[in-house]
């Protein structure tokens, strides 16, 4: 089911391939070698704790010989006199050993496990890197290789459940516009830096070297105000000297909805709607004959009984993903190229469906041009083409959810389609005969970086500069054909026979001319210059300092104003006695909209770390491999939205109105104030405290971290509409004020256990974040009813009424305190008079619970001989939600659950066809436990054993099967809890079953 | 050397990047105060949006909080259980009025220190005059909206009748929470002062002709007629039983004066209702601009006319329409026949309400009988709850059928003040002030004269009932109030009138009734009546609550008595 087959695509396909070959693959095709004069090298490969590692692929770059280690981790290989040996194995980071004069430096080669952050390993942080042991903040890092076993093309989805503090959110679930988001400690990432450049690319785990979650000011501070909520740092893969690798992957999968609502069929709906009408005092509108006709399927035009899910969206969606990674290079030049092609279809069984095709290219080249300098380049982008009905996935499902099974027949006859006054979306028309949208999105980036060693000027000084450009454009066009439509209405003739009358007929028209829609263009430019000073004065005094300057401009057709951001900052990291780290940061991250004085203000952050395992009093603690205790604190200004705050502002768009009489009129323009200036706005600030520890215990069997965090946001800008009477009637006459303080406190932790027992290696990992927010100052009304107030209370509380069951009869209503929320009849919810004033009204609102406070994840990864298995889960718990699913159905479809409505049970209030102000409001009646556990993915793969591959050109080959979104465990089973409206008002999240193959040469 | 050069280049790069225009303020697309208030033309542009709070369509939904109508989608909370200080039908009027008062005050602050048009200074001066008058008139109108909706006895001392927060200058956050409510009479006089100022600047009684300052193209700007009509309405309210701030005599005189100013000492026959599409209707004393639209028809036409049928008149209102000779239907002399309840009725009934059997729009017969096209489950699942649909304000020219060849739009406007309104105001005050004669000393006409032109327009050609009613103050009063109810149906006025008259809570708790029509096999109909909605009315509900959040925010605004 390949999709887009027009010429443009082919042309671009070819163009991309040519570029890829020119840029990437060429260096890999050089160096043909003869087999004479080879040296034999032997060695043993172990992990950090000395365990010998079997089945490590060992390849000599120059001689092109390769072998695998035996069960004792031993290998023997023939190499050139000067050569590179590359060792690689799943679960470990690849490493390169230099062969110099026919020998290697040490016979024992130590490989790093993916999930172990080595003390000296350099970790990317804001505009620089630090050895892990010297980072004072809480960071999480995960390698792209680890993320590979999640069946997705979205990096942001693959992160689900794995890291402390991080939660992966389902965005749009419709395959042609699928998206995901990540939240760290409750707020969205301020920024995603890809290879140092703030970007918004759709990245695929396979092009990623590693991802670092810089949660706090110990690692994200120098990114400035826009990253005040934490940053995600992504490094894409680079070539390794001496390597020459081609890796191809192909996979395909099928997807079906994770959840489909259980809605009533026409006969059940008709019966219950009659009941609802009766409750409202009206006569029933569905006769028994009609209900029987629904059941028997008689006359489907007069008595439609449509199962939309089965009829319209019952096809498994499929997707295909093909990637080719090419990497390698010599001592001076290395390259990496990722080429990806992804296509996906939707689940519609009518019409031409929803389709997307995406081509992705990412090229990295680094070149060392002298011993003092190197250049790195990145060029790439993506080309996306989407074609879908204008009726998007969410609207389609919303219609399916809202329309009763008997709402309308799709077709009245061969050429006329139906609609009704109340249900005027004909899904068959919308999906198969209506407007179609097609868009082409292109994004492209280019990045160039220069690193210079200025050691000759001052020892330890270097300079690097990085510039990046990103452009995005989206061209949309649409076709708007229409068909003949009418409202069918059955009426009785004088003789009593039913006749079909067509009302409100509209004639359709074909459309063969694509109309173009607005073109969206975004551009951003980024420059970062950085002086680095790295100096070890002696073992006891080591300094790393970075002076950074960054500037960024973002413009786009959807932005009112060009955004400009500039940061100047300094970080000094001082390492004492190789045990203590003291770090200080200072920065000016100017907010242009503020006064000059506020703009020039400096932000500060500082951190401490203590490598406790190095202390003599812990020397005997053999169980303790690594323990870093760390703390950091900083205050950073936050950006304000793009307006200027000091002067009153007016706009000419306010409607002036029209005057006069027909034939003699005048219309007049208008001016209104839109902003009241305020001269004394302070920079809104975020204070971030993080105290925590990173640890590795029992020979790295246990690794993890634990943190306490306290994030205070002070002086946030508000329009104080709830603070000032009268003026709040026109918000334009209120000046912005610094009047919102809140605090979030919480802990997050991750702990992993790794073990090897015989041939079985496994890692179990768990993480959790608990977070509570407090509001100390806020633009909200202060009520005399104290526990209704926001200020002084927790930010995540649920405010509502206390329900006391359902009124069974009129006598109960009369005996109860007067309920002031409108009409109350038997079958309606009874509320308690919380404040005891004799009536039930808004003053009885109080805190009845709180929303979820805990997010968590579990993962399990196992390897046995060639088999490996990865299981990833995540979830939310520790709170409630107000379930409004059964609220206000009106004349829309009923969920199967509504059959329980009073008097059938007391689980739900009486059915009504009308508004009901009493029942459908926040109360304990509707409060449910929010907890769930979601099985995000399971992947099983099999790697062919070395013995088979030994004498082939294939370096590595594996096959895998995987599934995602397979199961959710929750206390509420009538929805997909991780994203509650998906399946009802929105396109359901899809599960996936895929098979794939990966081969490296 | 080479390295040094590179280093220097690096430094250069850094410094040059620093000295950019980062801190320069990029001009925004918006305007500054200087630009907006530069000359007379622009100052006028600033005033124009102040008209934004004047209704361009009748406030139909407010009638669903009275006994006139219900909404097709369910009972209104504040109508059934009664309002609370946080939920009242008129809470939005607070914001609507104050928002514009703030705007107008800014205009007063900055709008006159402007440059005249150098090409035509005389015109500019005349324009500036008129604009200043408009600003006063509009501010008076919005203050009146506040007074009409929110006046009431003080929660601190129920003997004090409070009025509105008088805001006559640009309000700042420093004093926003310190402005309290003046008492009723001070508020009333403050509004009159604004109206007097308006009158001094506006020389136009009614916009007509082609003049550059007073031509018909300015219709719907504040005019002399509007100023007079507003004075009249205010006087009637101030003298009403709920407020009693002035005497009925004072009110009657004020209204008489208004009629006199507009029409001379005479009562003028009224224009017919037509399709409510006459934008030059001389009876419109003040209205918002017109537009060519079908919004009301889409919302309110019955299903068989392709509308949603949102406003459903109650049986209570239907019963208020007299018979063809003006007799109340309960009167033994009336022509009313319970078996043919829609026949021999006041012609306004057929112009204002769609009932079962109405057939004068687009050749379509309305069927609200059970099983009919316009009943539940007919063309629409959700149909009239009362058995009736609103027809007043709807145009018979509009056909919403997609296939219709005739037009599907008509001219629409809504008059805030009308000549008939003025007459009703006068009749009510005159009867209270001067008794059954209804004629004050020196006045050229009586309450009956005013009422008669209204009954004439209604088609009551031989008004026998009038002769009976005017003999007794109670039946006379009842007649005037009933005429007011009918004439103002679906405009929301009844919501205020019943409170202003302080009808007894028993009356205000009368259930809202609907009709169930059953069609017999011989095509005759049976009518039965049932309760659609109940009403709860407490004593303190005669006066509306100030929106509670405003009271909580402010240190000075006092709530009306009984509301917490």
UniProtKB/TrEMBL annotation, chain B:
It is found in: Cell outer membrane. PROSITE patterns: PROKAR_LIPOPROTEIN. Residues 1-19 form the signal peptide. The keyword Disulfide bond does not apply. Residues 53-202 form the SusD-like N-terminal domain. Keywords: Cell outer membrane, Membrane, Signal. Residues 306-563 form the RagB/SusD domain. Its main location: membrane. Gene3D superfamilies: 1.25.40.390. InterPro entries: SusD-like_N (IPR033985), SusD_RagB_dom (IPR012944), TPR-like_helical_dom_sf (IPR011990). The keyword Iron-sulfur does not apply. Belongs to the SusD family. This is RagB/SusD family nutrient uptake outer membrane protein. It comes from Agaribacillus aureus.
